[in-house]
Amino acid sequence: MVEYYQQLPPNNYNYKQQPGYDYTQQEEEWDREGLLDPAWEKQQKKTFTAWCNSHLRKAGTSIDTIEEDFRNGLKLMLLLEVISGEALPRPDRGKMRFHKIANVNKALEYIESKGVKLVSIGAEEIVDGNVKMTLGLIWTIILRFAIQDINVEVIPNFILELSARDGLLLWCQRKTAPYSNVNVQNFHTSWKDGLAFCALIHRHRPELIDYSKLHKGDPLHNLNLAFDIAEKYLDIPRMLDPEDLVYSQKPDEKSVMTYVSCFYHAFRGGHQFSTFA
Question: Residue ranges per domain, the chain?
Answer without folding.
Answer: 2-147, 152-269
